[in-house]
Specification:
Layout lengths: L1 H5 L5 E4 L10 E4 L8 H19 L10 H4 L4
Parallel strand pairs: 1-2
Length: 74
């Protein structure tokens, strides 16, 4: 994270810890949970972040590029 910050990148931190020594652009707090469930809890904000980032840069999220190359219908 220090290398990203040194290059001027914005850091979005997903954490279940209240205190973090890193300076971040934004911190998303995820509740503490059992290690079996925590990947599911982290997946939701990551997917929403990816969606909103794609919409912000103008990508058509409903018709991704090169979809026909990766999905074939038989």
């Amino acid at each position: 994270m220090e290398e990203v910050a040194a290059r001027g990148g914005k850091i979005v931190l997903l954490t279940d810890d209240e205190s973090s020594p890193h300076k971040t652009f934004h911190r998303i707090r995820v509740p503490k949970a059992h290690s079996f469930i925590s990947p599911l809890l982290y997946a939701v904000p990551v997917q929403l972040l990816a969606y909103h980032a794609a919409v912000f840069i103008g990508t058509d999220v409903d018709q991704p590029r090169n979809l026909a190359k990766s999905v074939t219908v038989e």
